[in-house]
Design brief:
The protein is built from four helices and four strands; from the N terminus they run H-H-E-H-E-E-E-H. It is an alpha+beta fold and 194 residues long. It has two domains: 93 residues; 93 residues, hypothetical protein PF0899 fold (2-Layer Sandwich). The chain has a four-stranded mixed beta sheet. The longest helix is centred in the first third of the chain and has 92 residues. The N and C termini lie far apart (111 Å).
Length: 194
């Protein structure tokens, strides 16, 4: 019997060891599962965070592009309105000669240009259509100058000293160009509502 008791004792000891090993394995497996779940949750959160960042970056990029496109479109619309306004001004001024006030306008343009030169011996360049008006105006103002009908303009004069050392342009087109440059900022501010 001692042999059987020994076998029984060995068997019981083996079962205890097996139970102990199973319990340790179950605890280890549970710890591994917990760590794996924690790691999986961390990986999932990292992927979600990365996806959010990617979406935010893409959204910001699209907003920037859209704003830039809108700004360019606004600038183009504003510039087109500005050009249209000056185009209308040019069209209106094209018929300036037929206005009954043109002789007064011509005289003022001539006075401004000649007073800027401030000396005798200058040349007045005009459109051939203003030849008679120029002669009459110069005589009225008692100004002596050479007249050259070598311009094509909607009205006004160009006055120059000999050798073109000084040239004063006071034509409708040159005044409109100066006004265009001078008023561009103000007109753009009005068009943009600022």
């Amino acid at each position: 019997m001692a042999y059987e008791d020994l076998l029984k004792s060995v068997e019981e000891s083996a079962q205890e060891k097996e139970t102990e090993l199973r319990n340790k394995a179950a605890v280890a497996i549970e710890e591994i599962r917990k760590r794996a779940k924690t790691q999986a949750d961390a990986v999932q959160l990292a992927h979600v965070d990365e996806a959010r960042k990617s979406v935010t970056t893409e959204r910001n990029k699209l907003l920037y592009i859209t704003r830039a496109e809108n700004k360019e479109l606004f600038i183009n619309v504003r510039e087109a309105a500005f050009e249209r306004a000056f185009g209308e001004a040019v069209a209106r001024l094209a018929d300036l000669r037929s206005d009954p006030e043109y002789p007064v306008v011509f005289e003022k343009l001539l006075i401004e240009a000649t007073s800027a030169i401030g000396s005798e011996g200058f040349c007045v360049h005009i459109d051939p259509r203003d030849d008679a008006l120029c002669k009459k105006t110069l005589a009225t103002l008692r100004i002596s100058a050479e007249i050259r009908t070598d311009l094509k303009t909607a009205g006004g004069v160009v006055v120059s000293l000999a050798g073109n050392s000084v040239v004063i342009s006071n034509t409708v087109e040159s005044r409109l160009q100066r006004a265009r440059e001078h008023k561009r900022t103000a007109i753009h501010a009005i068009l943009s509502g600022e």
